[in-house]
Specification:
The chain is mostly helical. The protein has one domain. Helix 1 runs parallel beside helix 3. The relative contact order is 0.07.
C-alpha cells in the first residue's frame, strides 16, 4: 500500500522550496547590487568629475579667447588693463582645472585625448602671446581712421 504524505509534510516541503528560492534570489541580488554600486561609484568618482572639469575648461578657454579679443580691440589703457587682468585670471583658472583633471585616474584612451587637447592648447596659448602687440597697432590705426570718418 502506498502511503501518501500528510498535508503537513507537503506544506513544509513547499515552504522549504520557497524559502530556499528566496534565499537564492536574495544572495544573487546582493551580488548584483555590489556590481551596481561599483558602476555608480565609477560614474560618481570618474565620469561626473571629469565631465564637470571638462565643462569648466571649455568655459574658461572660451572666455580666454573672448578676453584676448577684448584686449586686441581695447582702445583705452583702462580697458587694456582690465582685459589683461581677465586673461591672467582665466589662464590661472585653466591651469587649476587642468591640475584637478590630472588628479583623477584616467584610462589610457582618455589620457590620449586629454594630451592631444593639452598640446593644442599650449600651441594656441604660445601663438597668442606674441600676436597681441603686433595686432594692436593696426587695430588702433583702423579705429582712428573709423573715428575720422
Amino acid at each position: 500500500m502506498i502511503r501518501r504524505n500528510p498535508l503537513k509534510v507537503q506544506l513544509s516541503a513547499v515552504f522549504l522550496c520557497l524559502l530556499s528560492l528566496l534565499v537564492f534570489l536574495a544572495l544573487s541580488s546582493v551580488s548584483e547590487l555590489g556590481d551596481v554600486n561599483r558602476a555608480s561609484a565609477d560614474i560618481r568618482d570618474h565620469w561626473l568629475q571629469s565631465t564637470r572639469i571638462f565643462g569648466e575648461m571649455n568655459n574658461f578657454t572660451s572666455d580666454y579667447r573672448a578676453a584676448e579679443a577684448a584686449n586686441l580691440l581695447a582702445n583705452t589703457p583702462e580697458t587694456i588693463a582690465r582685459a589683461e587682468k581677465d586673461i591672467v585670471e582665466l589662464d590661472r583658472q585653466i591651469a587649476l582645472a587642468q591640475d584637478r583633471y590630472r588628479r583623477i585616474p584616467q584610462r589610457p584612451s582618455e589620457s590620449a585625448v586629454y594630451e592631444r587637447f593639452l598640446s593644442r592648447w599650449h600651441a594656441y596659448h604660445a601663438a597668442g602671446r606674441g600676436t597681441e602687440f603686433a595686432v594692436r597697432l593696426p587695430i588702433q590705426a583702423i579705429q582712428t581712421d573709423a573715428r575720422q570718418i
